[in-house]
UniProtKB/TrEMBL annotation:
SUPFAM superfamilies named in the record: NAD(P)-binding Rossmann-fold domains
Domain NAD(P)-binding stretches: 7-125
Coiled coil (UniProt feature): none
Species assigned in the record: Flagellimonas okinawensis
Domain of life: Bacteria
InterPro entries per UniProt: DUF2867, NAD(P)-bd_dom, NAD(P)-bd_dom_sf, NAD(P)-dependent_oxidoreduct
Keyword Transmembrane appears in the UniProt entry: yes
Name the UniProt record assigns to this protein: SDR family oxidoreductase
Keywords for this protein: Membrane, Transmembrane, Transmembrane helix
TM annotation in the entry: 450-467
Amino acid sequence: MKILLTGANGYIGMRLLPKLLNMGHSVVCAVRDEKRLSVDAKTRSKIDIVEIDFLDDPENQKVPKDIDAAYYLIHSMTSSVTDFDEKEAQAAKNFNTILKNTQCQQVIYLSGIVNDKELSKHLSSRKNVEEILYKGPFNLTVLRAGIIVGSGSSSFEIIRDLCEKLPVMITPKWVLTKTQPIAIRDVIQFLTGVLGNEKTYDQSFDIGGPDILTYKDMLHGYAKVRGFKNWIFTVPVMTPKLSSYWLYFVTSTSYKLAMNLVDSMKMEVIAQDNRLQEMLGIKTHTYEEAIDLAFKKIEQNLVISSWKDSIASGQIKEDLENYIQVPKYGVLRDKKTIRIKDEDAVLQNVWRIGGENGWYYGNWLWKVRGFLDKLVGGPGLRRGRTHPDKIFPGDALDFWRVLLADKKSKRLLLFAEMKTPGEAWLEFKIEDGVLYQTATFRPKGLLGRMYWYSVLPFHLFIFGNMIRNIAKV
């Protein structure tokens, strides 16, 4: 089958893509920016790519007419607190219009469980998108899931941050809300199992794992799998706003996502039927099994995708292309060079920068800068990196965004998503046996210049020692 995969560079899309290719399907990946599709050259050679923004005029968006099915994996929850529901509705309407000119027979939409009488704004939006898609010129299959547990998922990373950093927690009362988590590999099984299955046409199905747990149970379950104990005490006085700040400062989530998650965590998310599980013969994994499987992926460096790599998790609101040309005029620079003997070995050091590997010098200072960034609403350092030695354009790298990662030209270009009174780039390039390290800052007014000169003394020894340590092989 020829399949259109929307949201191909998202958390679910990146997991689904290799599965579809292994099943022998022809896949057309729909992304806003082709350069941000984080796949290797071998995978890229097997797929077709179309650049589409489903919020733009649908008349200007083109997809192949001969697609047989499509996956709808588009959402805007991480990009806004106020109007993400309007964006999601518009994207769904535009999607319907675009597919009118194709022979698509089935669309598969991954939604949220919406069985509670009172729904959060997030879940109401998912239900509304479902209703819009049912009006499209195709057969719709809806899979409604709750908490998805897997390496790199937002839910897993939040639980991981909370448990690993806070053995004793004072928590809001929403931790007593019941939910039904499901392993990411089970979600992928359901998504592929309904493909082309006419028995699932024009129907909506709940999917969930075998356990119904409170969020408190999930936190204890994580600790059990990891081999330690944690203590959780609930208080009734923590407002949604305070809860959101609590999640934001303790975990790697953005404030916008924290607000939307807290809003949804007040609702019970429990599947009401197992029809699809019985129909497809799928045996789902328990919550503790899902945690264990996630860590096996992490330990083997096999994490394919992470929610943190979403552009919406940071500060950039436009295409990466708009930032990739480092300005030459009206900027302040810190440029350092060092002669090296082994270019390939040094390039590997460059490619491992950030995350668990650190920044080669003054890691505690980088952590302080990350903490200060969190205080003023930035991402801080907690996003880390998805893989220890692989980088793709668009990836999050602590409080940087990868603009360019070209091993052939031996160049890595990062753009700062930390809160600063200006715009900042950090570039590494190897040429003719020399490593070039350049920090560029385009200040915004007097405040920007004051900021640059206030941190310049730190640059002198941080950046100087950093390039020397990177050059060591």
